[in-house]
Amino acid sequence: MMDTLLKVRGLSYRYPRRGLVLDNVDFHLNSGERVALTGANGAGKTTLLHLLVGLKKAKSGEIYAFGEVRKDEKSFVDVRARAGFLFQDPDDQLFCPTVIEDVAFGPLNLGKSRAEALQIASDTLASLGMAGFEERITHQLSGGEKRMITLAAVLAMEPEVLLLDEPSNALDTKARQHLIDTLKTLPQAMIIISHDADFLDQLATREVRLEEAKLIAAGGPDKDAVPTIEIVPEVVSKRAAERIPENERA
Q: Closest by alpha carbon to 93, among 48, 146, 169?
């Protein structure tokens, strides 16, 4: 049986000018899942990810992460260490002079010694095919290289979950496929925001969509859902189901 890593119940969020973007939303992420989170620009997709790691505070509802209710900033510190967030723009995540310093930054903040952090950073870069980039100047890298370095910086913290906000944005065809192939090999559960249908088709095991502040399963609302059910029912597309080994299917 899969463990539920993240879950929200009755989550709502309103911006002063944009209004309500999340209205009584229920959601869960189980181990082994790669969930596509889709919806129009401004629908509230990134807001939901920010709420999951405590970068924004929910107006109402409950957030469960790794078996505990999370409410205040102190409780979310642990969540941010266990849920790696890949920002939409790599330049928002890279701020050190060299690649090795950027990738080692997270392990250092988790209490690793400098020698340990540098070793973790070097090993992580090598695992992503980025060995030899350690001393490169970060701001001189290409868009695809920056994306892989931000992924290395996130993975160096050994997260249990990956939250990926438009990860293929602005990548050329080769860099995009390299990212897809890399993500396929990772064991972490993922929530992936993207407008790239083919990107999601190659990765996602199910899809949920934000529409008019409601989170619905792909293909439309579940009209037969019982009101007392706590979570959005899973809907796995035919193509996604074919990618799941037969011995793992329900």
A: 146
Radius of gyration over alpha carbons of the chain, in Å? Answer: 18
Residue 227: C-alpha distances to residues 116, 141, 193, 220, 233 (Å): 50, 50, 27, 16, 12
One-character DSSP codes across 143-182 = HHHHHHHHHHHHHTT--SEEEEESTTTT--HHHHHHHHHH
- In this prediction the pTM is 0.83
Beta bridge partners of 60: 12
Model confidence pLDDT, tens digit, residues 46-92: 999 999 999 999 889 999 999 999 999 999 999 999 999 999 999 99
**What is the 3 state secondary structure string of 173-219?**
HHHHHHHHHHHHHCCCEEEEECCCHHHHHHHCCEEEEEECCEEEECC
pLDDT band at 219 (very low <50, low <70, confident <90, very high): low
